[in-house]
Amino acid sequence: MHFTLLLRPAHKLPSMALAQVHLFILVFFLSNTFLSLAFPSPPDELSIAESVDDWGLHHHDYAPPSPPPPPPHPPTVSCEEDLNGVGSLDTTCQIVSDLNLTADVYIEGVGNFFVLPNVRVNCSVPGCEITVNITGTFSLGDNASIIAGTFVLGARNATFHNGSVVNTTGLAGNPPPQTSGTPEGIKGAGGGYGGRGASCVMDKSEKPDDTWGGDTYFWSSLQAPYSYGSKGGSTSKEVDYGGGGGGRVKFSVKEYLVVDGCVLAEGADGGNQGGGGSGGSIYILAYRMSGSGTISACGGDGFGGGGGGRISVDIFSRHDGPTIFAHGGSSYGCAANSGAAGTFYDAVPRILIISNHNMSTDADTVLMDFPYQPLWTNIYVQNRAKAAVPLLWSRVQVQGQIKLEAGGILSFGLEKYASSEFELLAEELLMSDSVIKVYGALRMSVKMFLMWNSELWVNSGGDITVSTSLLEASNLLVLKGSSSIHSNANLGVHGQGLLNLSGPGDMIEAQRLVLSLFYSIHVGPGSILRGPLENATAGYVTPRLYCDRHDCPAELIHPPEDCNVNSSLSFTLQVCRVEDILVEGVIKGSVIHFHRARTIDVQSSGMISASGMGCVGGMGGGKIIGSGLGSGAGHGGRGGSGCFNGTCVEGGVPYGNADLPCELGSGSGNDSLAGSPAGGGVIVMGSIEHPLSTLSMEGSVRADGASYEEVDQGKHSTAAISSYGGLGGGSGGTVLLFVRSLTMGQSAALSSIGGNGGPKGGGGGGGGRVHFHWADIPTGDLYQPIATVKGSITISGGSGRYEGGGGENGSLTGKACPRGLFGTFCEECPPGTYKSVVGSDKSLCHHCPTHELPGRAVYIIVRGGVTETPCPYQCISDRFHMPHCYTALEELIYTFGGPWLFGLFLVVLLILLALVLSVARMRFVGADELLGPAPTQHGSQIDHSFPFLESLNEVLETNRAEESQSHVHRMHFMGPNTFSQPWHLPHSPPDQLKEIVYEGAFNRFVDEINVIATYQWWEGSVYSILSVLVYPLAWSWQQWRRRLKLQRLREFVRSEYDHACLRSCRSRALYEGIKVAATPDLMLAYVDFFLGGDEKRSDLPPRLHQRFPIAILFGGDGSYMAPFSLHSDNILTSLMSQSVPPTAWYRLVAGLNAQLRLVRRGCLRKTFQPILRWLETHANPVLSNFDLRVDLAWFQATACGYCQYGLLLHAISGNIEHTSAEYRDGGPQNEQLSSSNSSPRGSSYHKQEPLLNHIQRSNDYFFRPKRSYGGIMDINSLKMLEERREMLFPFSLILHNTKPVGHQDLVGLVISILLLGDFSLVLLTFLQLYSISMVDVFLVLSILPLGILLPFPAGINALFSHGPRRSAGLARLYALWNIISLVNVGVALICGYVHYKSQASPSKKLPYLQPWNISMDENEWWIFPLGLLVCKCLQSRLINWHIANLEIQDRSLYSNNFELFWQS
């Protein structure tokens, strides 16, 4: 494999790089021009200044230099006569045939010189010189060759074609005098020139690096080499087998040089009996060069390989240039030791390349003095080349890089004379698979130092005068791929950027190591920082005097501000002035100090260790008796006693200052005992003046004492160890931390543990000392926790073995804490305590006086701790308010002096507000609620839609003859008008209508009516949802939809339907004859049919006696919101006036409705009995005067079982027998049936039962529903009545209609008081619940939604409404809201009970919680909800009375006196 140097052509260079090259060339030539003027060049050397002038650079036109004026030379030869060529040297000379020369030849002319293809120009005499100096073009054709000892070419352009050769291999003349390039003796070593020749023969006392063949020479002509190579040595005195040295080649081409052939100045081979010759010199000066050829000045092969020669190119532009070699030759006698590499110097970028083409060697390429003006740019040592700087006090300085790669080695000094200092200065030092060796000390200054699988080791040779090396990498220092920096003396590593030990195998170690001035240091996983060395002697581990000192070295507490390496200080490893330190590997040393660092982060894989790095003896050293039994060493605690077979020895004594420790741990023996366990070392982080900002730990920081079994027994004899098997363990060392904050994770470990004793009764070492010297502990409101410790801190003593005793625990201390803080880590005193003095003992935190703590309060932790009484506290919940921890409700109560005074104040306030409200109500609506009958004007129209408000005095007779005379029949809708059972009319006209309607058209009319009367599904869905959530809104929604449905039916009949079912032409034309009406409760509807006036029927309309028996249905359903009522409209009143005076009928209706108000659904058996009695005692005695009788009856009008109740009116003559009759298809079928057999079954189907028997009936029309089934009700049949009670039936026990009590103003006043009290209790309940939880408030508000808030506005609306009828309706809605709100009250009671139980639970009791010492405590949680419950129940009762007073203003309607009732 050949070494190929490829330089980037100019047209492929970046613009910036090209500009830099131009600048370098200009500076180079200008500086050399100045030097050439000051110091003229020797006549035999090329003058750079002359070249510059020749190229015209001073005229801003760069041209290749012409060769220097030659020394006196023989006259030029002619082309044709002397060279057998064709042409002339002043025009074009062509060499057309082989030319053999025996002497030097000088060829000069102003024309061109061509050596045609396959032509040989041969001068094989060693040292033979061929010089071609022409002004035109030189060409060496294909496969042509020039062979000579020296070939010098000067031309404008030159081309060496494919296969052409310029060969000076082995044809060197005599080397310059006073050089040692040719080896002496008969070792067969290689010759030297650019690199030393190899030597395969050496003495046993010699090392490979100390033996070489021929030496290097002419370092000064490195930039323009022009010397012969040296001959190789021989293995025989008689025969010289050594190969000849390489010759000289020098090109000076002003413009363009093309090398597609070979230019060789190699050393000749010496074979197996002679050393190879060294390479010669090749110097090329041109403006531009390209080609694919080869330029080589390699050493020759031989028994010992020859060293490489020297090559220098001064070419402004190189494009795809030829490959260049200058490596040493192979050694047949020692294959691993080839000749040393020669030198290749590129003059334009000023780069020196030393490459040995991956051939290993022990010989050096010697680097002598480096130029300072100008500096070289780069130096490359590569491909297993071995360069050496042997001169003492040498400086290697370049402007750019020093790069070692691919096995390159660079050494400074000599191993035998390691007493010098060396300097290395560069921008970058790059090492890859390479080594730098320093014998002495190294002062290195670079900006970037990168190492990959490389080594830098410094061997001081034990010379203390040069024992300190300083490595400075100002920007970056990276070790990667098991790289290492090693020094057996003092080593300082400085920088201003990053120091990164990347991973496993990366290491920096020295006997005393100082890392300073870096911004950040990263010790990667598996990497190591160590000081002292692993196998260092005790004297290097720690100064001997330090183990015997009783005072603390000042530099540990007050270290010097500088970061210089100082052998007089006690540190063995110091990290100084580094901002951030990340430890994922190992930092190990005897006395480790981190000075002026900001943060240290020890990851889980990281460790900072001084374990076993302390004293072997020391002040607390263990004692040893002659039998080899030893006790443990002491430090922070006494060492354990050593005992074996009854013989004991006392352990080492403790020593040092626990409050500021700085001592090494002691060992259990002395230096004279091999294998004695040592104590722990010292780890100091920060200082008093410059504490560490943050220490974060997930790994370990250890200064443990060594155990006996942990001692490296490999360096001691087995006999020595067995004799001391009873030695004790070393004591723990010191960990002294000057820090501001500490964070220890769960896996972190901080320890100073004593070592374990030996197996033959050795005592355990005492624990060491750990001290936290906190800096700037914040206090008060500025306090932040300075330590978060989740890991372990261990200071225990070591274990004794056999009969040996264990060591005592060491000391764990912290700086004295300020007031309010205690403990090692200066934490706040526990809640309920305070600390008013400086110190760390927990006993200084005194308990706070308990009498200062309010109820429902707990002591709290205050930032910075509590320094004095009273101690701060807070309420146990946000629902309590400072300073007394009252709830919002309690604050309100105690603002007014307590529960009793607050209650009294609230009652007085409610009474006053109620009085004001009552006065305002009387002024606003009082005129509408006057007691007694309201005066009416004669002829005024009375609203009979609310007949139970009418008394005899309110009834005014009007003329209704016109309307009643045309009425034919009333047809009732079936169903209660609910969403599930809407109104509907039966098909087929009754007999009473068959004479006035067409049956088919009537059926179509019924279909249309039934479709309109049916509700949409969503209306029922809304009702169902509202019924579950807010029942009062569901009732309002149902009434609204009922009202709209009735309005829609009326509009349909009045304006949309064409009355096609009527036979009367006049009715069809005028859209008359049919009317739809309903009771005020919208539960009972009917259709009235009238004559049109053009029927001409004398039997129509029927008279009253022709309609008997008449079924008069009650409106309502017996509920609180819709009580039963008899609706007597104009038509019914007119019909009844045919037999009964209107005043009597109105009085009867009013009295009956007053009694019907008291009927309750769910209690029909009980509440219908007074109705039966009233009919017998008040109604029938009067009606009997008119031959009429009424009976309470029930009717089942729907197929789904809905049961309606009403009166059955019929005529009587003589003695009346209770009968029943069955209505079917509009006509009665007379069957006798006792009333006792007639029993309504609620909503279930019953047998068809006759309603009347033995009653005179005519064939006239009757006022009754079609297909009605029912029966007359009496006392016996009521007992058999089956009732179905709904889920809300229990509320009817509270909310039901009652008799009026009068005193309307007083009732209104009390209602106003209760209404205001209700609202007040609601607010107080909410305050109480808010004190518990907002969730409870939300629950009470949402179950049922807003049910607890709406009774108040509903009550105000009812009290301030106009008109008795409207007031009564709103009052019923108010009562409904009030009773529904009991659910919310129940939720409030449940929430309060749950809270009370949770607070009463022992598991919920909080520390420092004192009993609530005020009168209204948690046990009274039920007061406000229960008071609200009572208030609502009282409101319900009073609302019942209020509604009764509004609806029944004539109290005589409830009179049991028959005469008084009918006379009122």
Describe the protein's topology.
Blueprint: H1 15-38, H2 48-55, E1 86-87, E2 92-95, E3 99-100, E4 105-109, E5 112-115, E6 120-122, E7 129-134, E8 137-140, E9 145-147, E10 150-155, E11 157-160, E12 165-167, E13 248-259, E14 262-264, E15 281-290, E16 294-296, E17 310-319, E18 323-325, E19 343-346, E20 351-355, E21 365-366, E22 378-382, E23 386-389, E24 395-397, E25 401-405, E26 409-412, E27 420-425, E28 428-432, E29 435-452, E30 455-459, E31 468-480, E32 484-495, E33 498-501, E34 507-516, E35 520-523, E36 528-531, H3 538-541, H4 544-547, H5 554-557, E37 573-576, E38 580-583, E39 586-589, E40 591-595, E41 599-602, E42 607-609, E43 642-644, E44 647-649, E45 682-685, E46 692-697, E47 700-702, H6 718-723, E48 734-744, E49 749-751, E50 769-774, E51 787-789, E52 792-794, E53 811-814, E54 821-822, E55 827-828, E56 833-834, E57 846-847, E58 857-859, E59 873-875, E60 880-881, E61 886-887, H7 888-895, H8 899-925, H9 961-965, E62 967-972, H10 999-1013, H11 1017-1029, H12 1031-1056, H13 1065-1070, E63 1074-1078, E64 1085-1090, H14 1104-1107, E65 1110-1113, H15 1130-1136, ...
